[in-house]
Write a structure and sequence with these properties.
The complex is a heterodimer of chains A (about 250) and B (about 230). Chain A has about 250 residues and is an all-alpha fold. Chain A contains 10 helices and no strands. The N and C termini of chain B lie far apart (about 55 Å).
């Protein structure tokens, strides 16, 4: 047990920052930067995928559906290999491991995030879209001003969970030598050689604390949304059933 | 890239053997890890249902650990870490075998058990308490009311998420390449190193994964529809 603290004391900079002042940034900080960038870029892309998936035109709907199903059916590591191979071919020059991993996560998550947003949209009563159209809003304004804000609000807990998934997926960057936390742990392990269990236990505990903390945030947000919805329900007796799909379906 | 597209070289002779062996190992990983995960998940659920606070805490801790730590890290902890905790004689004995497969099965199975356990618990929670009460009133003991009344209904409720997580397990088997198991992804990578036919190698492996995943998802959708119809009748 004492070994663990000694390892942390001697190597905390490597775990946290990689070789940063003397080399490239890595470690936990790079894991977080990679995850956050992936989420920030993948999110707008996923909105485009969603718009395509619920589009009234089949020729827009089909490619988006195929995109989502293909990415959901293939292991992330395969997508990494494809990105590693295809992106340099497309842009004509080599890209770093970090960029490869970022591109991969953006592509992969665009499919998963779009499913979450779509579930949020399907959770809204059809009356919302109908009312917006009846008020004279066009297709895109209905989507952007009425549907999307409500759907995203409902999907917020799932979006946080997806951020946790992204953090866990960045570990695969280790396989293409991205300088993130798993890579740092392997460096530490290669230096020490004799205490792999302790090193990987530190790694596991760090991920656990990070992801468990975020899980708690997601749960808290979920309760808050639940409460707010119940509050809405109490103050607007005209819609006693609240915004759920099952309540609105039979009337259609 | 496309003008000399040719699947021939990698789908014949020793290269095809390599791919097939990889696919076989993926299938074995999947099969053993799934069985381990499901057995353990059923056990965990039953333990959790006993309602003892200590048991509940333990199972909740187990689930929380396996869901919040990346699967790759769990694999590394098992493969690189756990053997060093064993006595020296056992370590030396283990060195005679290629342990990566067995540790991959253990790590993937234990991790997936957490997901299955949560799915089953959610499925069981949806069963009205009257079912248990009725089963007990009919004279069935705890084990038998579980076996014949509660679990069948719970599994049925949990089916969609169980299938989803089975697909997840199938995709996760590819992580075993990080500890040196020559499964399908590893084989495709090797093949690429030998032949330099990157596009063809990845295409074959991707289509293989996609076919099985879509098959599982399709089977899940069919089963769910079947059960829904049975319930509506």
């Amino acid at each position: 047990m004492l070994d663990v603290f000694v390892i942390i004391r001697d190597n905390w900079e490597l775990f946290l920052l990689g070789q940063y002042p003397h080399g490239p940034l890595g470690g936990l900080v790079n894991t977080l930067i990679l995850s956050a960038l992936a989420l920030l870029i993948a999110f707008p892309l996923s909105l485009l995928v969603v718009m395509a998936r619920i589009s009234p035109f089949a020729w827009v709907r089909w490619p988006a559906t195929v995109w989502v199903y293909v990415l959901r059916g293939v292991p992330l590591i395969m997508v990494i290999f494809w990105t590693y191979f295809l992106v340099p071919l497309l842009i004509g020059r080599n890209i770093s491991g970090f960029t490869t991993m970022l591109c991969t996560l953006v592509i992969y998550q665009s499919a998963y995030l779009s499913e979450i947003v779509r579930a949020g949209i399907q959770g809204l009563p059809a009356g919302q879209a109908e009312a917006a159209r009846a008020l004279g809003l066009g297709y895109f304004r209905t989507f952007g001003w009425v549907i999307l804000p409500q759907a995203l609000f409902n999907a917020l807990p799932s979006l946080i969970s997806q951020f946790i998934s992204i953090i866990k997926e960045t570990t695969l960057g280790y396989m293409i030598n991205v300088q993130e936390m798993t890579f740092a742990a392997n460096q530490v392990n290669n230096q020490l050689l004799t205490q792999p269990f302790q090193v990987y236990a530190i790694l596991a505990i760090t991920y656990y604390l990070l992801c468990y903390g975020l899980t708690r945030v997601a749960t808290a947000v979920e309760h808050r949304i639940e409460r707010k919805r119940q509050g809405d329900r109490a103050s607007t007796p005209s819609s006693p059933t609240g915004p759920t799909l099952t309540a609105s379906e039979p009337s259609r | 890239m496309f003008k000399d597209f040719d699947l021939g070289p990698i789908l014949s002779g020793e290269y095809a053997d390599l791919l097939l062996r990889g696919a076989g190992l993926t299938a074995q990983l999947m099969l053993y890890a799934w069985s381990l995960a499901m057995t353990l998940a059923l056990l965990l659920v039953v333990v959790r249902l006993t309602g003892k606070p200590v048991a509940e805490r333990l199972v909740a801790g187990y689930v929380s650990y396996h869901r919040n730590v990346p699967t790759l890290v769990q694999l590394m902890l098992w493969y690189f870490g756990v053997p060093t905790l064993l006595p020296e004689s056992t370590q030396l004995w283990l060195a005679n075998f290629s342990t990566e497969f067995i540790f991959a099965v253990i790590a993937l199975g234990l991790c997936q058990a957490a997901y299955f356990c949560e799915d089953l618990r959610a499925g069981l929670r949806a069963i009205p308490t009257g079912q248990t009460e009725a089963a007990r009133a009919l004279g069935l003991g705890y084990i038998r009311s579980m076996r014949y009344v509660i679990l069948p209904q719970g599994v049925r409720n949990a089916l969609p998420s169980l299938i989803n997580h089975t697909v997840l397990l199938f995709k996760n088997t590819s992580l075993a390449m990080a500890i040196g198991v020559v499964e399908l992804t590893y084989a495709a990578r090797e093949l690429e190193n030998y032949t330099f036919r990157t596009f063809e190698c990845y295409l074959v492996a991707t289509l293989g994964y996609l076919a099985v995943s879509l098959l599982l998802m399709g089977a899940g959708a069919l089963l769910a529809r079947h059960f829904n119809q049975a319930r509506a009748r």
